[in-house]
Amino acid sequence: MSIEAPSPLLPRRRRSRKGSLRTVALLGPAFVAAIAYVDPGNVAANLTAGAKYGYLLVWVLVLANAMAVLVQYLSAKLGLVTGKSLPEMLGTRLRTGNRRAFWLQAEAMAIATDLAEVIGGAIALNLLFGVPLFVGGLITGVVSMGILSIQSRRGQRTFEFVVIGLLTIITVGFLTGLAFTDVSGPDALAGLVPRFEGTETVLLAASMLGATVMPHAIYLHSALARDRHGNDLEGPRLARLLRVTKWDVVGALIVAGAVNIGMLLLAASALRGIPGTDSIDGAHAAIQNSLGPTVAVIFAVGLLASGLASTSIGCAAGSEIMYGLLSMRIPLLLRRVVTLIPALVVLAAGVDPTFALVLSQVVLSLCIPFAVVPLVRMTSDRDLMGVHRNATATTVAAWVAAALIVVLNVSLLWLTFTG
């Protein structure tokens, strides 16, 4: 009887599986940053655009998501190569006066971010349980403190698992409705052609851009990558992490992009022309009438998960910005309390919550160049990045993206003030 020799492929297969598992274990920071791309501001902007103008602005989401992939990878690369976050790099390069002025605009951006996320959570609680908006804002703030405490007590990896779980709920919540609607393929494809129809569509495009290419996620991702993988990387390990980071960013933003485009397609196909669907509560009512109460509840649960997760990420980003630019580190929970106040004031004042969400995203859009321009300059710097500096094609693409953002913002301001 002959004994068959073990196949030489088995050890190789085992090594391959182990290598794949190690690669998967390195993923995560981009999925945390991706929460910023599916926050309540996205919901308001995308639903309003789809309900009012159908498939007209699909191209904005596709373009914005492509930009987001590029800038998020550059942000993570900066953190991995330099061992410092983007705010820290800015803090070491700017003079005192410029550094403080930069922090003020970044702090305004952080407040606008928090405004959108707390209001979104409050709306979701109102839709699900009839909780008054002000009380819902308080509950959202308190629960987000609990999520932030996980990062403080259990570490970043556990925090990542919690956030990715919430991202899963968000994805299911916002995409379920598509299974019950008839999306027009030809009209959706026609929406890929760049065009506007009046001043309001420019406002909405800027809002959608601000909600997709989120400036606070650009600041934060560099810190997430650094904290997850260390700040003293070099040689083959650094090269491997940069490769894995590309997959991390692409995978995370494919999910976020699908959610955003799915929301617009849902509004365009099921909510177009229905009165009141340019607000989240109106859209929720229309979804309930058109697609049934189950889909409406799932949508509201996705909105709640979006508000809870994104407000935690926004608070963490604001803390990193303050530390990098002012060398001040205040406890995350204290910052959570302070930044909650403007959102609660807006809710108590009775401002239309959906309109406040859309305007907050316009503020974010205006702040994007302040994050993107220095990021592109730094990651293209040979002295700073060495062999990992941007390739020429990457630099050109990044500058084109920055220029498009600036042009859209200037157009928005011009059309707004000239009528």
UniProtKB/TrEMBL annotation:
Topology with respect to the bilayer: Multi-pass membrane protein
Recorded superkingdom: Bacteria
Keyword ATP-binding: no
CC annotations in GO: plasma membrane
Keywords: Membrane, Transmembrane, Transmembrane helix, Transport
GO MF annotations, alphabetized: cadmium ion transmembrane transporter activity; manganese ion transmembrane transporter activity
Matches recorded under InterPro entries: NRAMP_fam
UniProt xrefs under Pfam families: Nramp
Subcellular location per the Swiss-Prot or TrEMBL entry: Membrane
Principal location: membrane
Entry protein name: Manganese transport protein MntH
